[in-house]
């Protein structure tokens, strides 16, 4: 790497003098709060995470309180953030630390990496921020910075790329000040070395950046795999008896596991494939996910609900005023809000 020996110093100077990115978990040393923020930040922008971070800490200021909480309450607080497997892993790890490890987080990289839901990036973040251990974080921001510095065509989603850029990130890191350095490089990617319209002239490293000098900044990073979006059609039967709606919990290894929904019929297109005694008009909502696009059709069935129907779909009767106590996917919440159930 062609950066001079002062590269880490210049980045830290920028961080202290010019980086105004104010986030509630910055400079935090409590491993519980750092871990919580890092789990929330996985695949989610910091600005969207802030209210969830504050809300969860308000209810559960310690990991013991989080571990002892009802799972439905935690899912309810998580509601709307997406990627619910993170929430399940959060609960499992909280219980293990509280019940099996005396409420103490492992203070080694290897110990952190062994926790449920923690990969190399999160382990590095908690290790450096909480314990000042010299492990370099490599998230999307860091991949972008390093690939641009080197104008590297190695795909970041390849086995070779992951190993190569981890090595380069470690070489770049200020090993005496890993916490502040890791925070600085992540913030540099979030505020200056952005995916689109980067502010290159404000970057403390732009003089050493090969992509900047060759005017190829926006070509990097490079990925080898093209993202394929699966289209799914969810037809929801909304049974409404005038005082209650009938919902069920999603199970199985699919999206939205442990969240609640209406009776569901999934098809390959917009046709539901069944006939109604009366043809209710469908309300249509969409929810894009990382690898899927959900189109949801809601058919409101204003009728007394037969026990056979309840059994067939595994439904639970819930009074209107109690719906807010159940965690649901965003597309369900959108329907409920538009139709004044919430």
Q: Which structural class best describes the helix and strand composition? A: alpha+beta
CATH topology of the largest domain: Endonuclease III, domain 1
Shape: globular
Low-confidence stretches: none
Description:
It is a single chain. The chain is of the alpha+beta class. The protein folds into two domains: 7-219, Hypothetical protein, domain 2 (Endonuclease III, domain 1, Orthogonal Bundle); 230-338, Nucleoside Triphosphate Pyrophosphohydrolase (Alpha-Beta Complex). Helices cover 42% and strands 13% of the residues. It is built from 14 helices and seven strands. Strands 4-1-6-5 form a four-stranded mixed sheet, with helices on one face. Strands 3-2-7 form a three-stranded antiparallel sheet, with no helix packed on it. Strand 5 (282-288) and strand 6 form a beta hairpin. Helix 1 crosses helix 11. The longest helix has 16 residues, at 85-100. It is globular and about 75 Å long.
């Amino acid at each position: 790497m062609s950066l001079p020996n002062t590269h880490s110093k210049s980045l830290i100077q920028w961080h202290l003098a010019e980086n105004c990115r104010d986030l509630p978990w910055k400079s935090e040393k409590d491993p519980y709060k750092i871990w919580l923020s890092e789990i929330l930040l996985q695949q989610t922008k910091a600005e969207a995470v802030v209210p969830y971070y504050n809300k969860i800490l308000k209810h559960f200021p310690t990991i013991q309180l989080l571990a002892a909480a009802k799972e439905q309450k935690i899912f309810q607080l998580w509601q709307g953030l997406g990627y619910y497997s993170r929430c399940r892993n959060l609960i499992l790890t909280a219980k293990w630390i509280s019940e099996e490890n005396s409420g103490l987080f492992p203070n080694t990289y290897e110990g952190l990496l062994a926790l449920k839901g923690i990969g190399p990036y999160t382990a590095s973040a908690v290790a450096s921020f909480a314990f000042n251990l010299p492990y370099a974080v490599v998230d999307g921001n860091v991949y972008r910075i390093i690939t641009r510095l080197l104008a590297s065509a190695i795909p970041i989603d390849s086995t070779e790329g992951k190993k190569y850029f981890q090595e380069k990130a470690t070489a770049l890191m200020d090993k005496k000040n890993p916490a502040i350095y890791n925070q600085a490089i992540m913030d540099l990617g979030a505020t200056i070395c952005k995916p689109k319209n980067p502010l290159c002239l404000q970057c403390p490293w732009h003089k050493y950046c090969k992509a900047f000098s060759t005017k190829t900044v926006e070509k990097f990073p490079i990925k080898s795999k093209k993202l394929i979006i699966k289209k799914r059609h969810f037809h929801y039967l909304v049974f409404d008896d005038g005082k209650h709606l009938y919902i069920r919990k999603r199970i199985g290894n699919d999206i939205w596991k442990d969240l609640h929904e209406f009776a569901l019929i999934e098809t390959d297109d917009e046709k539901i494939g069944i006939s109604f005694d009366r043809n209710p008009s469908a309300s249509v909502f969409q929810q894009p996910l990382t690898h899927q696009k959900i189109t949801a059709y809601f058919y409101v069935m204003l009728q007394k609900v037969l026990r056979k129907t309840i059994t067939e779909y595994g439904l639970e009767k819930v009074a209107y005023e109690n719906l807010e106590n159940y965690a649901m996917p965003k597309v369900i919440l959108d329907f409920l809000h538009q139709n004044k159930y919430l």
